[in-house]
Amino acid sequence: MNVSLPPTWEQFVASQVSAGEFGNASEVVREALRLLRDQQENRALEEMRAAFAGVDPHGGQGEPTPQDRALIGQAIRRHRQGKGRA
User: Fold this and answer.
1) Is-contact 72 48, C-beta < 8 A?
2) pTM, entire model
């Protein structure tokens, strides 16, 4: 896969590599994609928490039960599969 970046992003990627933060440009892009995925998953989790807060007798406070964790895990897996990720 080839990706075209505007000059400002190319310079940023190059600066990350030259600073020794990453070994090459591909590592920079992979890390950026990991961060994007984590951000989207966190957003989905927050949306689920907000949805569950309306039915949770504790108002969304406290730790989720094992059943809640299983349900959240299933929802995250479905979300990933729907986005072409496993």
Assistant:
1) yes
2) 0.59
